[in-house]
Design a protein that fits this description.
Chain lengths: ~240, ~240
């Protein structure tokens, strides 16, 4: 049975890395003391070692050990052995490119389906949807495909940002961008604001955190859903 | 001899479509009364016809006729016949995808090299660089490649936006995103603020408009350049 936490962000403004999630993570990962971290998204281009250290520092606060997947000779084997997985944020294109390069997409799908608890933040959440067509990231590398894990039957837009009514900038708002996505694609998109996450247990998908989320469906006016809403019907 | 205007945006805040450029365009396109418009980037997913109408309305103010490339049975032939080309903004991935689909990349390179005046705005400017790895757009479709026209020896970031010091949003700033690009790629990037454009005449590349631009070079601290700066040495 799938057990996932798909979070908009690792960090909310004014607090430490993963701080707002630590209590929840303590119970989410209750059956394991060791987390396998996938640092491939490399925020700011930092090294896999440096990024893993950040995850280690956070998880040490709830008594969990973290090991980076890059520390294993056989990343596929490491995934299969893992009792808990965390895929951190950074650049979604870099993350997806490396997952394809190491042929890990199928293995990730398999271990998540088999019940290994999975935490994703930001880019690590983007890959839980159908495709990365709704990432906010700059396409700094060209991955072999935009198709990803499809662990939920829709796409995710993390760090969802409401339009700034005072802005004089002519770039598109997030809402406009997602509506453009629907000119070429039909799957729903969930705009997850920073501080929100999806809790997946088997076929159930529930919005958690304090904030509402925004739902974009093909040929439908976007609408808000409250925290606690069951989104398993969204497809 | 190349003759290009590579503009950050079609529209500056509080004015009409192309308004801030019309005087310059009048002299830039002085040798032709007819402009071929490429509406493939489809801002907001609008139709090619609707988008072409917007370009028509703007160019009619300086006595130029506009025809959309989609109105021709043979788009490649239309490009070869054109005396002036305008590629409008919208979604860079959609634009590039359609250019590849219609096999127009090589033809565009050829006619620009041969001296057909080319105006690009936003997505239409992005494609003048080496790759679209530094677009701001959402990757709503998967193009066959990120490689584009390479009419200048660097990459372009249109709608360049300075960091907002008051922001509580945890998404990356534009500067951070471009610096991440340099973790995987070495070409320079020019951040073109809205209201700026590059004027290309043969091998000369000069920054025009009222604003400074920001230059990002591999392994170098980003720096500002004044309008009027010759950027032909940037590579």
């Amino acid at each position: 049975m799938k057990q996932m936490m798909i979070a908009s962000t690792s960090t909310v403004h004014g607090s430490g890395y993963l701080s707002y999630l630590l209590d929840t993570l303590s119970s989410f990962f209750k059956d394991t003391g060791a987390i396998l971290f996938i640092p491939y998204a490399r925020p700011g281009g930092i090294s896999h070692d440096d990024y893993t250290q950040i995850a280690k520092d956070a998880f040490s606060q709830i008594g969990k050990e973290v090991k980076g997947i890059h520390e294993f000779d056989n990343p596929k084997g490491a995934l299969k052995q893992a009792k808990g997985i965390f895929v951190g944020g950074g650049n979604t294109f870099v993350l997806v490119n490396q997952l394809y390069k190491n042929d890990l997409i199928g293995t990730l799908q398999e271990v998540i389906q088999n019940g290994t608890p999975y935490l994703g933040t930001s880019a690590g959440s983007n890959i839980c949807g159908l495709t990365i067509n709704t990432t906010n990231d700059m396409p700094i590398v060209y991955p072999p495909s935009f198709k990803v894990l499809a662990m939920v039957p829709f796409n995710i837009n993390p760090h969802y940002l409401d339009p700034d009514p005072g802005s004089k900038h002519m770039g598109e708002t997030r809402e406009t961008r997602i509506q453009e996505f629907h000119a070429y694609n039909s799957p729903p998109v969930i705009g997850l604001r920073e501080g929100s996450w999806l809790e997946v247990k088997g076929d159930s998908i529930v919005l958690r955190g304090e904030l509402d989320a925004r739902i974009f469906k093909y040929h439908t006016t976007p609408y808000e859903v409250k925290t606690g809403t069951d989104l398993s019907g969204l497809k």
